[in-house]
Write a structure and sequence with these properties.
Distance between the termini: 22 Å
Strand order of the largest sheet: 1-2-3-4-5-7-10-11
Oligomer: single chain
Structural class: alpha/beta
Largest sheet: 8 strands, parallel, barrel
């Protein structure tokens, strides 16, 4: 797959979601509200045209639960029609849509009832899934839930802020009750989807770090990784595929019997998110996933770099794909790669981290493709990764 990922459901004007509420709380960690965001909800045809013209073949985008069920039990025919139009628009352009049903945000009413920890949460989610079945014909792949391990840890992340995801700080542990509900919701959704569309390829996408464990810390670190990552990977053992989403590595060690996450060397290059620039993490992440999930194929559903330097984006992506190909040569069954992301978008409450292959003027919403879009499109058309890149021109050599 020569593929792109738009990112989370367009936050702009999504007033029925818990993210909109979070953005506007007085004590929010968000640096600024999303406002109209990049207006992808209305400009999806422009975005798909950019992708198709670049030569890309697959498009992962999300259906926003809060738009479809803005109040409990009331489903919007207009929103369902909107997403059906997007699916048809992708197919008409020769783009194979991968649909994500849940990407972090919930309807505000769902969160007010206790979110995934509330009794009946799984039933509420599966009711939503049943209501979107009618618009999914022609879709080849569905992702039920994006990064369930992050969703299960989100309460702790929201309390401490997204900086808790940076190096040197122990990652928040997913809430066990929430994790259990998410795994059950995934399994139930998979059953519903497969009953309606037996040939549909169903999976979910897990945030997978390339965990690198110091000698002597293996036992303690294995349990640390299991709670934050492995249990969610193993939940996909009966799926058609598993999504891997990775950006950097995490170096684990122990101090006084406790697992610690080592910071990179002071000289290490950092991205705009504060993460270590480490594109080889993609190879390590897919290898670790494959070892935990058995024979289930892997699809890279997110990988990219937050940078204002587009030549660095090309360099990072080339190195990440090189590591991915090495893993494939060693026998890891990888079926596709989705880059994060098509547009510079709203990332964890801020516009500062720019991951996009396309810049967006947030006043006019004009899209300005970067050289990296044409470069990635050329890879999709050729099916070949050059040995080196001319990062000044964004071209293979």
């Amino acid at each position: 797959m020569g593929s792109l990922d738009l990112g989370p459901p367009d936050r702009g004007g999504n007033v029925a979601s818990d993210w909109w509420y979070l953005e506007h709380k007085p004590d929010t960690f968000c640096q600024e509200p999303s406002g109209d965001a990049v207006d992808s909800y209305h400009r999806w045809d422009e975005d798909m045209d950019l992708m198709a013209q670049a030569g890309l073949t697959d498009y992962r985008f999300s259906i926003e639960w809060a738009r479809i069920e803005p109040t409990e039990g009331t489903f919007s025919p207009a929103a369902l029609h909107h997403y059906r139009q997007m699916i048809e628009g992708a197919l008409q352009r020769g783009l194979r849509p991968m649909i994500t049903l849940h990407h972090f945000s919930n309807p505000l009413w769902f969160s007010a009832r206790g979110s995934w920890n509330a009794a009946g949460a799984v039933d509420r989610f599966t009711r939503y899934v049943r209501n979107v079945l009618g618009i999914l014909h022609g879709v080849g792949h569905v992702c039920t839930i994006n990064e369930p391990n992050m969703v299960a840890a989100f309460r702790a992340i929201a309390e401490r802020g997204p900086e808790t995801l940076n190096d040197g700080i122990p990652e928040p542990e997913p809430d066990p009750g929430c994790a259990e509900a998410l795994i059950e919701a995934h399994h139930q959704a998979r059953r519903i989807l497969k009953e309606a569309y037996p040939d549909l390829q169903v999976g979910w996408s897990v945030a997978v770090q390339d965990f690198q464990i110091a000698a002597g810390a293996e036992q303690e670190a294995a349990e640390y990784v299991r709670r934050r990552q492995t249990v969610f990977v193993e939940a996909a053992r009966d799926d058609d595929w598993i999504g891997v989403q990775t950006y950097t590595r995490a170096r684990l060690d122990t101090e006084a019997g406790q697992v610690v996450r080592r910071s990179p060397d002071p000289s290490a290059e950092r991205t705009l998110t504060g993460w270590e620039y480490y594109p080889a993490a993609l190879g390590g992440a897919v290898r670790q996933t494959a070892s935990a999930v058995g024979t289930v194929p892997v699809i890279v559903t997110e990988n990219g770099v937050a940078t204002s330097d587009d030549t660095l984006r090309v360099r990072y992506t080339h190195a990440a794909l090189s590591a991915l190909l090495e893993a494939m040569d060693d026998g890891v069954d990888v079926r596709g790669y989705f880059h994060w992301s098509l547009l510079d978008n709203y990332e964890w409450g801020s516009w500062e981290p720019t991951f996009g292959l396309v810049a967006v003027d947030r006043t006019t919403f004009a899209r300005s493709p970067k050289p990296s879009l044409a470069w990635l499109g050329s890879l999709a058309r050729s099916g070949h990764l050059p040995q080196a890149v001319d990062v000044r021109a964004g071209e293979g050599s």
